[in-house]
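Input chain follows. Return structure tokens only.
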Amino acid sequence: MTETIDSQSDSAIDTESLSRMYTLMLTTALADQKSVAESKAGRLQAAFYPVRGMEAVCAALGEVLTPRDRLVSTYRNLGDALAKGTSLRAIMAEMYGRKAGLSRGKGGPMHLQDPAIGFTATTGIVGSGLPIAAGLAMAAQLDGSGIATVVTFGDGATSIGAFHEAMNFAGLWQLPLVFVCQNNQWGEHTPIASYAANTDLTARAAAYAMRAEKIDGFDPMAARSALDAAVRRARAGEGPTFLEFTHYRLTGHTGTADFSYVPKAELEAAMERDPAPTFRRWLQAQGHLTEDQLSAIEERAHELVEDAFVYAAGCELPAASDVYTDVFADDTWVRSLHRD
């Protein structure tokens, strides 16, 4: 893998936008690394799914989506949540199971959501977010709202029945939906060539009458260009788009997982294109940001991450009685427990 960034994609992007993208990429990477360390230390006692390698696409999403647009994510969702504008404090509080978390400490890392800004849902079941996103897109189409829906998922989800159902539905109804496939080459512990008869995932979209494109997922500028065009088409009522972002997972499947099964040469080559450091070098080489500006962003990112973890660890835990709130059920049996 060679270190390349699409310089043709930055002509209309200002310095402020580039600063935001680098900030989001670095903050995601730092928070991810801290979460892994906390998981291994036993202080973060919920399953955490690292996003290392996906930061470039997350940064691009952050630039093209508005609070009105809807985003449906997976359990590997840290970068998506930050891209949509969700507070890192609230994210980490949820990961630690605290009342100040996005789901009041009841959902954990696999169920982040912030509907007020269009971060509509995350799902713990592989592929299950796709039909949810199709439903949201259909609602937007019927309402004539001009809202775009984006759904992110891994390469492994393309083998799930819900993927094909959602793709067919979106193509048939020409829904305002963007399918964002984060192809990191691994389905949990299995390389893509071992579970997919055809590893060209973009080719599958042709069967569902929609635009499809394969993009370098390590390149934030190429990702931003492709996502911007797809989201604009969705808002304009021009139908769905399938975008396959090819990159590589830089960590294990979970925060505590061994990943010695990953071929050493492949991982080393991928690490040479680690998104945030690569983007930093490009920003400086192209004269977009100075060393002082980059250092200031890095100092702020470290402060944000440290603040979020300290805040989350110190937040109040849910009370035992909170288990009976925010659920759809008859509470008769609950009330019976408190009778004299």
